[in-house]
Amino acid sequence: MRMAELSAESGVPVATVKYYLREGLLPPGERTSPNQARYSAAHVQRLRLIKALTDVGGLPLASVGAVLAAIDGDETPHRTMGLVQQELAGPAPEVSAEAAQWASGLLEDLMRRNGWKRYPAENRTVANLVAALATAKELGQEKLTDRLEEYLELALRVAELDIEVVDGLTSVDRIIEAGVIATVLGDRIFAGLRHLAQEKVSRQALGGRPPG
User: Fold this and answer.
1) Entry's CDD domains (predicted)?
2) Nearest CA to 66 among 52, 82, 51?
């Protein structure tokens, strides 16, 4: 297909497609003349993946580039998924040293009790989780952190569902791509379902209570 057809099929404007080609986010098409190239269904799929990462996942193009490089590289699906999670997490917000120390100890104890490996502090996912726990303590919401064991059980079940998405796939490229999509879109799907569930449970539990 030509550039205009690629744009129409993917829903990405021609100018944006050309930009992705210049930046190396989209591989070049097959040259048919000095100024013309032919594109395939693989290009459409790559453009849809970029849209999912940027529009739904909210990743900046620099992070998208890192994710796509991992997909196209020689890393294992597991390591590629780790990179995706780091890019999704982003830098952690700052919290007080005292609260961060308390949260780190709480998390390490949880990991130890459940037989999980110890993650380095520079891991963005860990840093963001520590910041969230520390913030909960600073706001006096220890009841939230008291339920960590139960949250961990739920997280494990969700992770099992995520991995089932790639079960049965034989191509490493497809495994990685499906895992990336499950991670990015799965976060948004679960967050949306959680918010809807909170609204339902809140209405049932709190809807009849008087203001104040």
Assistant:
1) HTH_MerR-like_sg5
2) 82
pTM tops 0.85: no
Tens digit of pLDDT at every position of the chain (212 positions): 999 999 999 999 999 999 999 999 999 999 988 888 999 999 999 998 898 888 877 888 988 898 888 778 777 777 877 887 888 788 899 999 999 999 999 999 999 999 998 888 789 999 999 999 999 999 999 888 899 999 999 999 988 888 888 877 777 767 777 777 788 888 888 899 999 999 999 988 887 666 65
User: Which tokens hold the place of 114?
Assistant: 């459940």
Q: Which amino acid is at 41?
A: A
User: Residue 15 — left, alpha, or beta (φ > 0 → left; ψ -120 to 50 → alpha)?
Assistant: alpha
DSSP letter, residue 24? T
Indicate left, alpha or beta for 27 from its phi (over 0: left) and psi (-120 to 50: alpha). Answer: beta
